[in-house]
Automatic annotation (TrEMBL):
Record protein name field: Eukaryotic translation initiation factor 4E type 1B
Xref: InterPro entries: TIF_eIF4e-like, TIF_eIF_4E, TIF_eIF_4E_CS
UniProt source species: Camelus ferus (Wild bactrian camel)
Region (Disordered): 1-49
Pfam family, one: IF4E
Biased composition regions of type Low complexity, renumbered to the chain: 1-21
tRNA processing found in the keyword field: no
Gene Ontology MF term list: RNA 7-methylguanosine cap binding; translation initiation factor activity
């Protein structure tokens, strides 16, 4: 993060300034008072610069994890590193272009602060137009079945009714993102590749992708923990579909390999 600006030292008072004050003792007192007031003003200005930097996503995303050391009196704002580096992708359906040409990398981040800078400065999922997707994946994994780390895996799929878009969608998506970057699936967190949200006219969908569909223990653990984190009722059933099945059939026809 950026460092607060250190107050610039005030220039030494000239003899003329001291003489105009009446006497040397009174002049020194006045100069010290002026100097202290100036330092307080500059310190306040430095704090404002720090606050403004937190609100500027482009500045925050470009900052290094640790600022260079400028001396023991300099204060630093420590960042909180994540266990993995993540990439946010955006997809907007344009039938005149190839599918892959509609997929765009937005940004990458690996600290808690950079995540919030990103999230606070993008459109909420509920505000996206139909046919758009967000995808958050571990850096190096592209949000497509063909990626070598995805093709043997599958996804836990949460389907939402149209009326849930403005009441629950943003909350459920944010909980999904926080669960991912927090690596909250315990020893099975390495199995998680990423998550996708699909905005569709018939109903929106949120899915958590894993890398190995045949790892039953890991897949079921992820599904149960994810369902609990979203606060879904026990009556709500979510299913896990292997990418191999989804790729050869429409989503409505693909069978669930597991359910929780």
């Amino acid at each position: 993060m950026s460092e607060q600006l250190a107050p610039a030292p005030a220039p030494a008072p000239s003899s003329e300034l001291l003489q105009s004050a009446g006497d040397a003792e009174g002049g020194n007192k006045n100069w010290r008072k002026d100097k202290e007031e100036k330092e307080e003003e500059e310190a306040a200005a430095g704090a404002l610069v720090g606050e403004e930097a937190l609100c500027a996503p482009t500045a925050l995303l470009s900052l290094s994890r640790k600022a260079p050391d400028q001396g023991p009196t300099e204060s630093k704002l420590e960042l909180h590193p994540l266990l993995s580096r993540w990439a946010l992708w955006f997809f907007k359906n344009d039938r005149s272009r190839a599918w892959q040409d509609n997929l765009h990398l937005v940004t990458k981040f690996d600290t808690v602060e950079d995540f919030w800078a990103m999230y606070s400065n993008i459109q909420l999922a509920s505000k996206l137009s139909s046919g758009c997707d967000y995808a958050l994946f571990k850096d190096g994994i592209e949000p497509m079945w063909e990626d070598s780390r995805n093709k043997r895996g599958g996804r836990w799929l949460v389907s939402l009714a149209k009326q849930q878009r403005h009441s629950e969608l943003d909350h459920l998506w944010l909980e999904t993102l926080l669960f991912l970057i927090g690596e909250s699936f315990e020893e099975h967190s390495w199995e998680v590749c990423g998550a996708v949200i699909n905005i569709r006219a018939k109903g929106d969908k949120i899915a958590v992708w894993t890398r190995e569909a045949e790892n039953q223990a890991g897949v079921l653990h992820i599904g149960r923990v994810y369902k609990e984190r979203l606060g879904l009722s026990s009556k709500t059933i979510i299913g896990y579909q292997a990418h191999a099945d989804t790729a050869t059939k429409s989503n409505s026809l693909a069978k669930n390999k597991f359910v929780v």
